[in-house]
Amino acid sequence: MKQIAIIGAGPAGIMAALQAVKSTAEVHLFESNPKIGKKLLVTGSGRCNITNMQAKLDAYDTDEPDVLASVLAGLSPQAFRALLAEMGIFTTATDDGWVYPFSFAAGNVVDLLLAQLHRVGVKIHYAARVQAIRFTNGQFILTHDKHDAPHIFDLVCVASGGKAMPDLGSDGKLFAQLAVLGHQILAVQPALAPILFADKTLRSLDGVRLDVEASIWQSSTCLGMDVGNVIFTQWGMNGPAVMNLSHLLPEPVEPSMHLQINFLAGYEEQARAYFAAQQDSQASISVLLGGFLNQKITAALCKKSGIPIDEPLSRVETTRQKKLLSLLTAYRVQPTGTRGFKYAQLSSGGVPLGEVQKGSLESKLQPGLFLAGEVLNVVGPCGGFNLHWAFASGYATGQAMAAHVFRE
Ligand SMILES: Cc1cc2nc3c(=O)[nH]c(=O)nc-3n(C[C@H](O)[C@H](O)[C@H](O)COP(=O)(O)OP(=O)(O)OC[C@H]3O[C@@H](n4cnc5c(N)ncnc54)[C@H](O)[C@@H]3O)c2cc1C
């Protein structure tokens, strides 16, 4: 009987195991934690934002879009939800396409996935950290912590994740093994992470939460832009709109880069027209801006523009008004980096998608070796896109491994 090893019982490895076991092979799932899906448990603040109805190619960043497209075509969000329903995991979508289990409980999702793994006969090895993967005489030899599990396999899938939140299990140590097997490892960096900067004006906004347009620039080139919720803190900014851009910041951040914030995103034209019509007003700018923005923001930006908060608009000359408008629509700060892996929801980099086959995600460098999930260089935004990638890539590799067994 053919032996398949899957390394990592996160969403990618679990799905790979559930598909691979449809062949005649014996499927072994190795997990370094004493339980499966430890990271899955904390997703969506414990509510598990499991996919997104817009999980399409243009939502992601990667080095090889064709390979990504082949995986997304193999398991659309609709097909994934149907597959989940077959396992008793029923889902619901918000108006903007974020999909959650009906229970809004990640723990229930993990329990149901575990029940399914047991039902189909996947052999799970808990607290079984794989340390080394070697290929000799047409077979893979794994070195791991578990004495009662086999060491020799015909096919191996590495689904050990990246480096984000290492306390949950994925610490990136297997990248070195993949390098030994011939793979290039792109710099692994925090993604979906809060962004750090030191800016006295913005520090006074500590605790303010609102929707803004955020963008990362290198000199005059915009590298990425996002509109959504952010939270200002003492050390910088958190929230989806900046987290979605954090992978664009190299370590260390280049001096020519800046983060730009438009506080009036979505209603800039309306605000401009309103102020143009209010030029004779005896009310202060801060009162008038109160129709659009939180008081802390107007106070901080008026001060930076040299406008006392009680000065009537009619007395504020054009130069200071222009300065205020430019701060409101294009506030620039110099990021010093991200808050690091400890606070990142994802890591970018890892094995390039260009080094795996379209459709199957089998290594182009080591036949019989498959890769799935965050170990590969794919970054999606917040909203269920990364779990979709993890499950869809697990689905692709699992099916490909099953087909491999049937072929032989
Ligand atoms: C706080 C937080 C919230 C998130 N929320 C969302 C969300 O709501 N929606 C969304 O789409 N994405 C979310 N994500 C991202 C999502 O969790 C990841 O994209 C996804 O878990 C990646 O799946 P994976 O299977 O590739 O890796 P992982 O989930 O990291 O699983 C890898 C597994 O491999 C195991 N492992 C590692 N090394 C070894 C080894 N040597 N031997 C054996 N086992 C090993 C690890 O213990 C781990 O269980 C969130 C992430 C975090 C941290």
Polypeptide structure, described:
With 408 residues, the protein is an alpha+beta fold. It has two domains: 3-189 and 348-407, FAD/NAD(P)-binding domain, CATH 3.50.50.60; 195-338, no CATH class. Helix content is 30%, strand content 25%. Strands 18-17-14-15-16-13-19 form a seven-stranded antiparallel sheet. A five-stranded parallel sheet has the order 7-2-1-11-21, with helices on one face. The chain has a three-stranded antiparallel sheet with strand order 3-6-5. Helix 1 (11-20) packs parallel to helix 13 (385-407). Bound molecules: flavin-adenine dinucleotide. Flavin-adenine dinucleotide binds next to helix 1, helix 2 and helix 13.
Summarize the structure.
With 408 residues, the chain is of the alpha+beta class.
- Beta-sheet strand percentage? 15-25%
CATH level-4 homologous superfamily of the largest domain: FAD/NAD(P)-binding domain
- Shape call: elongated
Total beta-strand segments: 22
Question: What percent of residues adopt helix (DSSP H or I)?
Answer: 25-40%
| CATH fold topology of the largest domain | FAD/NAD(P)-binding domain
- How would you characterize the largest beta sheet? 7 strands, antiparallel
- List the domain count as a whole number: 2
Going by CATH, the architecture of the largest domain would be 3-Layer(bba) Sandwich
What structural class do helix, strand and pairing data support? alpha+beta
Q: What integer is the average pLDDT?
A: 96
CATH class of the largest domain, named Alpha Beta
Radius of gyration of CA atoms, rounded to a whole number: 25 Å
Gap between N and C termini: 11 Å
Number of helical stretches of at least 4 residues: 13
Q: Give the ligands present.
A: flavin-adenine dinucleotide
Low-confidence stretches: none
Strand order of the largest sheet: 18-17-14-15-16-13-19
